Amino acid sequence: MPEFAGASAAARRLGFDPVIRLAGGRAVAYDQTCLVIDLMAPLALFDNHIAAFDAGAACFRDVLSDLGIDARVGPVPGEYCAGAHSVNARGQVKIVGLAQRAMRRSRLLTACIVLEAPDRLRPVVDAVYSAMKLDWSRESLGSVRDEGVQGSLDEVVHELVTGLQQRHAAWALPQKTIVDGVLA
Questions:
Q1: Domain count within the chain
Q2: Where in the numbering of this chain does the BPL/LPL catalytic domain appear (predicted)?
Q3: What global pTM score does this model have?
Q4: The CATH number of the domain where 22 resides is what?
């Protein structure tokens, strides 16, 4: 991508070091106010990448709903790193971005959850997307805190991780077992 060098320089000027994510996707900005969760599963657990996205997005939607957020799956107008499986609040702001990579025998689903302070991230996305000639809307970037979730960041992270462990969704509690590389 010819704009990559300019986008990288723009991020560095704002104090963000560019990193190429294993799961791929378009440019995102995150810092210590974000939580990145990587979920791994055997490749055979899901029939295809859409089924894996569906299961992962539903899991994050349900956990955010448990925290009192009107969480929905789907893109919002003008969102950064747009995707059909983004998790948003109220259909207005993106809170969780998902990306995935299928490897030889496993599948990685990465979620980036903005916990608070999206105003710190917006200038970075502005600069990087401008350098890459990509459109986005600043208003599309939201956070868990902006949706009324209370508590310290440690408490919010604990609730999110505990919620993921307790969900009866494919990523959190697989309903299939792999025996000798075959679904059982």
A1: 1
A2: 10-128
A3: 0.89
A4: 3.30.930.10
